[in-house]
């Protein structure tokens, strides 16, 4: 693709975002939270693991912008570092689940003899509650980044695979695909040139919802005490640690809860608006 074509695509995407108020607000909020989390070392004045018992349960002040927790740790630093952890984990989960789900969905939808056994396997994975599977994997493998990513990504893979398979089943009957197959084009080439481009739009939308689900699941695991160790800031762990002190110091629960809610809300609203943009049929239905 030439530079001018790439620039034209970027301009069209910018106009599309600017023309949708909900998408624009959600995107700006999401970027604000992501940038704040990435720049946590420059925004927070204290180390998130630094203990100061004399300053425990202090309200917001010039030194501690969001107050302190029960151990005197800076709540702003812990919230921002916890948000950075959640965002990084959600990105890894989305990439892993989309890549594996795409491969499985393409194989199941294009190779007819693989369709039934592969999809029954996906149905079996979906029959297990995702949170229960995550709890079991974390309990067995320990609370590390690899185990957490796998525990959250595995329940999302069947959903991606089913979505891709449905697209492949509808596209593989198109005349241009049948003509390409009839001409002796290798299967991988057919998948790459003619079928996989049709899966990009739904995959992009689904990836945003996977991100939101991953952020929420990681927070739930942390709240249940099955997340990362206490010395590693996590939004769910921060809320769980602040629950016994809620009546005395409600900010310990309030601020990480608001950050978590805004993060998930912005991702979901952006994904929903993106779905409307990428699906012309849905857009026409809502306009009508």
Helix proportion: over 70%
Instruction: Tell me the β content.
Output: under 5%
* Mean pLDDT over all positions: 84
Query: Quick one: biggest sheet?
Result: none
SS field, number of helical segments = 14
Shape: elongated
| Cα gyration radius (Å) | 22 Å
Number of strands: 0
The string of secondary-structure elements, in order, is HHHHHHHHHHHHHH
Question: Class by helix and strand content?
Answer: mainly alpha
| Low-pLDDT stretches | 1-9, 282-288
Organism: Cupriavidus pampae
Keywords: Cell membrane, Membrane, Transmembrane, Transmembrane helix, Transport
Domain ABC transmembrane type-1: 87-271
Membrane topology: Multi-pass membrane protein
Question: What report would you give on this structure?
Answer:
It contains 14 helices and no strands. It has helices spanning 3-18, 21-38, 40-43, 75-110, 112-127, 130-141, 145-153, 157-171, 175-182, 187-195, 200-223, 235-242, 251-278, 280-287. The relative contact order is 0.14. Its main location: membrane.
């Amino acid at each position: 693709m030439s530079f001018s074509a790439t620039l034209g695509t970027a301009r069209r995407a910018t106009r599309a975002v600017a023309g949708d108020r909900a998408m624009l607000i959600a995107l700006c909020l999401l970027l604000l939270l992501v940038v704040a989390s990435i720049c946590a070392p420059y925004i927070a004045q204290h180390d998130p693991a630094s203990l100061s018992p004399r300053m425990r349960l202090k309200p917001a002040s010039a030194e501690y912008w969001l107050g302190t927790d029960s151990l005197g740790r800076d709540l702003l630093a812990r919230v921002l570092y916890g948000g950075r952890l959640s965002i990084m984990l959600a990105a890894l989960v989305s990439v892993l689940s989309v890549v594996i789900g795409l491969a499985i969905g393409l194989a199941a939808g294009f190779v007819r003899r693989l369709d039934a056994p592969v999809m029954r396997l996906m149905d079996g994975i979906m029959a297990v509650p995702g949170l229960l599977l995550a709890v079991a994997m974390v309990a067995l493998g320990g609370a590390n980044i690899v185990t957490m990513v796998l525990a959250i990504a595995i329940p999302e893979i069947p959903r991606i695979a089913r979505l891709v398979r449905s697209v492949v089943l509808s596209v593989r009957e198109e005349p241009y695909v049948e003509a390409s197959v009839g001409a002796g084009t290798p299967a991988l080439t057919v998948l790459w040139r003619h079928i996989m481009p049709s899966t990009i739009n739904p995959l992009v939308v689904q990836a945003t919802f996977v991100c939101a689900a991953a952020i929420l699941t990681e927070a739930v695991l942390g709240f249940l005490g099955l997340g990362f160790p206490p010395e590693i800031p996590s939004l769910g762990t921060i809320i769980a640690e602040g629950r016994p002190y809620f009546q005395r110091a409600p900010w310990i629960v309030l601020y990480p809860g608001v950050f978590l809610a805004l993060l998930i809300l912005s991702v979901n609203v952006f994904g929903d608006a993106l779905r409307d943009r990428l699906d012309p049929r849905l857009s026409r239905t809502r306009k009508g």
